[in-house]
Inverse folding.
């Protein structure tokens, strides 16, 4: 897996990146315990709206997919559906050690250990769980990355689609459904 | 109807968009202060809209695309007919029925586009939005008919001009206090402010009609929403709060009225759609009918 480093943006992309950096709508997929750290980050104590961030109801409207904590293989399928429904400049943030290396579930048969095998992660937040201070700090980093055009995970996903798809299939396996809509 | 009318009409659309979008941004800060937050930048709403336009987008079929364009076109066309501080791009075309009918083009375009996306949440949202429209429109139209009967004119700018010159007490909201109350309650329903926002409930039906919109279509929906807010607040302002003698008075009154709805909305819970309909058909419709009977048979307001 090679990492794309070249950064030649047209003027329109630079302007677009300014808008995208200052208005980040999140699809906040409550996969694990990390979701509980989001309400204090959104409400009056830490107030993420001052960075222009806010929660959105559906993947179509969102820019950032948050994977908040451990991800079971059963949920991974839905996360991939959600990610592929999002509109194109899109970013993935992995919360906590579970998305980095499995965390305390490293030897579980039901969870994945490394998120970036399946989706292009732009930013990881370490911790079990990361506190709201760490989340706000990492969002500031994400804004800087988008502004500089460094958050290119979505392009990487397009360029290395076969590699990601093979990993996803390897983890999920083939599912044969028996019902009235299939067969 | 000269070339300048079209130029003025275009400028009216642009001005309405810039003013209402700035005001929405300021009101997001007001809401944040109500909740003891710092809130976003005042121009955050512009960034959000331009960001949505900068993203890629997909289609869900031609009904979806055509409906979105029809909605934006219909609403933008309605803005041209709204008299602002006595100024009209097309003089003499500001009858309340013209505005109601042209507005319906945009509303139906939006319903068509959302239904064309094929998502069940969108269908539920559209059905709730139209039910809500039926609920607030009947009391509102009763009180508008009362005004038309009383003043023998349906022109919005004339109705606004008739209230001017006698200070605050000349406004219809104080001349016909029950009617003014109905109009303000109907404004909450029109704007989809709480407690009448069940059709866009984000946690319940995943933002209703907006559920499948992303990218450029979402940007169009946000632009449309700003223009629609301008039309609805302007109607209530012209009919019940005396419009404005000058542009600055008009914009100031507009900002106060919109911020008022936003502050009330910030501390309200949400009605279920059946509760909203029951409420509108019990309280505002009753008040509107009482006001109409008092004006027509009691001679109130003459």
């Amino acid at each position: 897996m090679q990492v794309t480093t070249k950064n030649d943006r047209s003027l329109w992309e630079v302007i677009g990146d300014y808008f995208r950096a200052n208005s980040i709508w999140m699809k906040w997929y409550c996969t694990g315990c990390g979701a509980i750290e989001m309400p204090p980050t959104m409400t009056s104590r830490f107030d993420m709206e001052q960075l222009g961030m806010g929660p959105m109801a559906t993947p179509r409207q969102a820019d950032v997919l948050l994977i908040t904590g451990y991800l079971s293989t059963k949920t991974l399928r839905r996360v991939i559906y959600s990610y592929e429904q999002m509109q194109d400049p899109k970013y993935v943030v992995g919360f906590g050690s579970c998305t980095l290396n499995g965390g305390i579930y490293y030897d579980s048969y039901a969870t994945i250990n490394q998120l970036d095998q399946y989706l292009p992660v732009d930013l990881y937040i370490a911790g079990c769980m990361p506190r709201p201070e760490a989340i706000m700090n990492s969002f500031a980093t994400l804004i800087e990355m988008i502004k500089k055009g460094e958050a290119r995970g979505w392009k990487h996903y397009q360029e290395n689609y076969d590699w990601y798809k093979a990993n996803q299939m390897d983890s999920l396996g083939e599912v044969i459904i028996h019902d009235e809509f299939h067969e | 109807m000269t070339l300048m009318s079209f130029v003025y009409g275009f400028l009216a659309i642009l001005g309405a968009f810039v003013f209402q979008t700035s005001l929405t941004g300021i009101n997001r800060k007001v809401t944040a202060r109500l909740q003891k937050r710092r809130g976003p930048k005042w121009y955050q709403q512009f960034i959000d809209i331009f960001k949505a336009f900068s993203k890629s987008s997909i289609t869900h079929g031609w009904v979806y695309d055509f409906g979105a364009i029809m909605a934006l076109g219909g609403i933008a066309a309605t803005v041209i007919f709204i008299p602002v501080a006595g100024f009209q791009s097309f003089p003499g075309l500001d009858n309340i029925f013209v505005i109601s009918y042209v507005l319906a083009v945009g509303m139906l375009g939006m319903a068509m586009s959302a239904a064309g996306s094929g998502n069940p949440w969108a269908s539920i949202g559209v059905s709730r939005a139209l039910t809500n429209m039926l609920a607030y429109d009947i009391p509102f139209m009763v009180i508008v008919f009362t005004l038309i009967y009383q003043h023998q004119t349906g022109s919005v700018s004339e109705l606004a001009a008739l209230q001017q010159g006698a200070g605050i007490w000349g406004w219809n909201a104080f001349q016909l206090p029950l009617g003014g109350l109905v109009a303000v309650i109907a404004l909450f329903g029109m704007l989809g402010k709480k407690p009448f926002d069940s059709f866009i409930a984000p946690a319940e039906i995943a933002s209703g009609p907006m559920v499948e919109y992303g990218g450029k279509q979402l940007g169009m929906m946000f632009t449309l929403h700003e223009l629609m807010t301008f039309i609805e607040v302007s109607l209530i302002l012209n009919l019940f709060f005396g419009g404005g003698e000058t542009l600055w008075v008009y914009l100031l009154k507009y900002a106060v009225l919109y911020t008022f709805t936003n502050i009330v909305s910030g501390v309200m819970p949400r009605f279920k759609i059946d509760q909203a309909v029951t409420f509108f058909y019990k309280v505002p419709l009753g008040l509107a009918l009482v006001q109409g009977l008092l004006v027509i048979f009691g001679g109130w307001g003459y």
Summary: Chain B has twelve helices and no strands. The radius of gyration of chain B is 19 Å.
